[in-house]
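Issue: ligand-bound run for glutamic acid - logging full I/O for the record.

Environment: standard queue, default settings, no custom constraints.

Inputs:
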Amino acid sequence: MQNRGLWKTHTILINMEKVITKSQIKAAVEEAYAECRNLKGGKNADYIPYLANIDPELFGISLTLRDGTTFDFGDTEYKFGVESVSKVLTALLILKQYGAAEVLRQIGADATGLPFNSIFAILLENDHPSTPLVNAGAITACSMVRPQGDSWGKWEAIINNFTDLCGSEAQVIDELYKSESETNFNNRSIAWLLKNYGRIYDDVPMSLDLYTRQCSVGITARQLGICAATIANGGVNPVTGKEVFAPEIAPKITTLIATVGFYQNTGDWLYTSGIPAKSGVGGGVLGVLPGVFGIAAFAPPLDPAGNSVRAQAAVKAVMSRLGLGVFNGDTVRITD
Ligand code: GLU
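Outputs:
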């Protein structure tokens, strides 16, 4: 009897393993690129003047496996504004510096169900910034970055963390930074409201400025794909081999991404795509399939919630072509 039980368990495990070849993955990415390339719809973000002027035809998709193999199609070397995707990178930094419990206590991990820049969400959550992946929580996260009180030291920590996660340097696009700084009135209100609730843990203008600066970093789809793959790989950058964060942080950041990565559309996104992902108004999307791969896509025109139309479609197309999903229960094995 006992043996039969063991045999059954073993059979189930075998049945749940999904074997995919690298050429199947490459083909899925290439086909997704071809399918979505001419997809119309959406509009560049225009509340940040710089973003309104980016060529709306740009489009790229990049997928990195845990062994560092990368598949790139389209404009994957174009440096676009990382915008809200930066929230993932700095959330990782404070998870490293403070630990998961302290981030939960000082910011939270709740989905707001509201737009990225919602002031209402702060009031509804009873003075809590909700999650480091919306504007409020991301400004709080910048205020937490160590070393405290040292604007330059904090910025170095933020940008060095970008380099470690992406496997190569990223720099601020000065024109974008200027454009955002001159127009970020809503974020200024958020920062001061959070200060009123005791949720800004350093100088307020400095924390807001760090947030604005990190949103203005120019990043490529390839770099974001590598960053996503570092998360999928439990904190070790698959391209550089560097351990960027401890493995226990990976499920925490992926949970945050899964619960709020597409703001008020997050449930619809996860339900239809099967992959936790984070978007930014620069047109980028970063997706993490834990233990399997990281994926990034970029195209400037956005839907009304601020998520890239073509990047969403491309990531979904890859997932459905490969028959993968974070809740499918498969163990995925990738072969040559
Ligand atoms: N810098 C943008 C803002 O704070 C980022 C928003 C986003 O990408 O969702 O408004």
